# Entry
Amino acid sequence: MSRGAPLLAALALALMALAAPAAPAAAPPPASIPTAPALTAVDPASGEAVALDPSQGPMHVVFIATWCQPCLSQLPKLADLEDRWKPDGYRLFLVAVATRQTPDRLRDLLAQGPLPGRLLFDADGAVASAFGAATIPTHALVDRAGRVVARSGVLDPPFAQAVESLVRKEGRVKP
# Structure
């Protein structure tokens, strides 16, 4: 083999990679979230650490910020989902990311009126990291086994359909 053979092989591989279809830019969602120990975030109203425990039923986790207009504009649609599916075991968590956030800013948001779901503060970023949430808003739908079964940057009809499907499948256990 000549001295140039490794260089030609590398060049051929690079050309094949360029000719291949581009992979999606976003990283795939994690297959499941850690469940032991449970992920926790802080309730800014009470200071209580709240466990995000998927075994308690379907969880819709939305990563938001008080300064994010697209996040805030989705609150009415989230309220509609909660009104429709909460009696069947749907649980909604609004997880505020740490970027330019403080517990005081979150308490101010709470003082403006009721929010859908439960507002939590991810002060150290551990929850966002576990969910692979790199942008806001990020919606993640988690089944009882802790698997992320749907993920989206918007609350669109396919995501709402995924919520309905999961709640019908794994919602409140009927006696």
